[in-house]
Design a protein that fits this description.
The structure is a single chain. The protein is mainly alpha-helical. Among the domains are: 3-98, Orthogonal Bundle (Arc Repressor Mutant, subunit A), CATH 1.10.10.10; 201-263, no CATH class. It contains ten helices and five strands; from the N terminus they run ααβααββααααββαα. The strands form two sheets. A three-stranded antiparallel β-sheet has the order 1-3-2. Strands 4-5 form a two-stranded antiparallel ribbon. β4 (231-232) and β5 form a beta hairpin. α2 packs across α3 (48-55). The longest helix is centred in the middle third of the chain and has 67 residues, at 125-191.
């Protein structure tokens, strides 16, 4: 079977049949695909779910309605199966045999008919003159009204341009104020003296001497942060080394045993047991 002739014969019938809709055509094309896979053997077994999936039909009622109508009109023969484990049978009719080649005389007659129809559709000279005169008189009236409408549109455009210019000036003023504020902030940031990191060794010693802290602590502080790349907590970069140095001094005062004894003699020193300095071993634990 020649499937090209079959499809042309099918679409010839579809053109003449005005009762069909796109759902019928999509259903038939999906069944034709199954017929093609079965090498055009009749009948073929189909399942409703697969045909609905290919034809993009979502409703079961629409599927059965279209199948019944195509069966009644002679496009196919449908034998439904009420067994869920067995597919329905469809017998497709070969439309390739309906096509017959046109002879030369028939072709010439068709061409002549088409030419005559085109000639008859063209208007006569008198009708063209009437149309031109009516168009000429009509255009004069249209021009007057169009001029008035153009003037109105020009006036509205002038008003819109004035409003748009005012809005542009306001936007420019706002942008200028924002730029001025940003410049002031930048100047303030530039005027603030930056504390360079890493600091110089002499500056660190001078800072610790101002805080009445021995030079050993300054050396410990400098060596500690110099070894870890001046990172606070080993993660974030240091921003103010003087603040870090002041925290270092506070921590040294906390963990210094001499100062702890002076502040509170009863409190234990770090590294020792939770006991007082003068232990009475006669007391029970």
């Amino acid at each position: 079977m020649n499937y090209i002739k079959h499809l042309t014969g099918f679409f010839d019938r579809v053109v003449q049949d005005h009762s069909l809709n796109p759902t019928h055509i999509s259903l038939y094309i999906s069944i034709f695909q199954f017929w093609n896979l079965n090498r055009f053997q009749n009948p073929i077994s189909i399942t409703r779910d697969e045909v609905m999936r290919i034809s993009k039909i979502c409703s079961k009622a629409t599927y059965h309605k279209c199948m019944r109508e195509m069966h009644d009109k002679g496009y196919l023969k449908y034998e439904p199966s009420y067994n869920p484990f067995r597919g329905s049978m469809v017998h497709l009719i070969n439309f390739s045999e309906d096509l017959k080649p046109l002879q030369k005389k028939e072709r010439k007659s068709l061409i002549n008919k088409q030419v005559d129809e085109q000639v008859n559709e063209q208007p006569n000279e008198q009708e063209l003159n009437k149309l031109q005169t009516s168009i000429g008189t009509g255009t004069e009236q249209v021009l007057v009204s169009s001029i008035n409408s153009i003037n109105n549109t020009n006036n509205s455009n002038i008003l819109n341009l004035g409003q748009s210019q005012n809005s542009k000036n306001e936007n420019e003023e706002l942008i200028g104020e924002k730029e001025k504020k940003e410049k002031k902030l930048r100047e303030k940031k530039e005027t603030i003296p930056k504390k360079k990191i890493p600091p110089k060794w002499n500056d660190v010693i001078a800072f610790f001497q101002e805080k009445n802290t021995p030079d050993i602590e300054a050396e410990k502080f400098f060596n500690h942060f110099q070894s870890n790349g001046w990172l606070v907590g080993g993660k974030s970069k240091m921003k103010d080394w003087k603040a870090a140095a002041s925290n270092w001094i506070l921590n040294t005062q906390k963990f210094n045993p001499i100062t702890k004894q002076m502040n509170n003699s009863s409190t234990p020193t770090p590294g020792n047991l939770q006991t007082t300095i003068h232990k009475n071993y006669a007391e029970p634990l």
